[in-house]
Amino acid sequence: MQYLRSLVFNIAMYLWMAVVGLAFAPRAIASRVGARAGCNFYARTTVTMLEAICGLRSEVRGTPPTGGVLVAAKHQSFLDILILWGTMPRPFFIMKSILKYAPILGAYAMRLGCIPVERGKRAEAIKKLLADVRAGERKDGQLLIYPQGTRVAPGARKPYKVGTFALYEQLGQPCVPVATNVGVFWPKRGLLRKRGTAVMEFLEPIPPGLDRPTFMALLEKRIETASNKLMEEAGFPVPPHPPLHGDPVAAAASQAASEAVEKT
Description:
Elements: H1 2-23, H2 25-30, H3 32-54, E1 56-61, E2 69-73, H4 78-85, E3 91-96, H5 105-111, E4 115-117, H6 122-134, E5 142-145, H7 163-171, E6 175-180, E7 196-202, H8 212-233, H9 248-263
Parallel strand pairs: 1-7, 2-5, 2-6, 3-4, 3-5
Antiparallel strand pairs: 6-7
């Protein structure tokens, strides 16, 4: 029965995206504020739909940022994007370049000023972003980046990329880590949406001015420790892992193990 509910929800989610996208199109074309209103409406109503159909509710803990900050979040599924988007007032993402071609989703992302990054050209995208910030075009926005660069299934491990530090250093803004357990209920792959409570937790901000080793170690520790606690709270047993940052041998070994976990 839960598979059937999940199927109904997935169909409804994409149909609803088309309906909301078209309904808000005139406002989105007129202004970025209109595009943001459409995205916020879609995110919140879809999360409500998920609870009504599949019995999967969402919970936000901590204090979502409202000013200009860098947000570094654990990424496990599309659900964490929906929750984050419906929580912060002016978010924009660094996203994979291919997503800008996605119907409706891509058009709205580009209208909102999300940053598409092509493989091998990340540095160019970051330079453009920093130029926009200096010109005042990104004032008071919440720049969301996934420091591991992709979705990571519960129990899997991927290293934290130093591109997050490059943004943190050059923006000179606080960095707000975000932990989650959404992948326990909405997996990286597959149809099933399980019952339960998916949590996004905004953690203590990291102040600007730290050096790279200190920042990267602190960012990973806060996100991984809090995410593991949330996953254990949801009934998912998380094996202990040493930090990956700063240890390339451990990172390579853990990467291979993670790929094996994700294929099972």
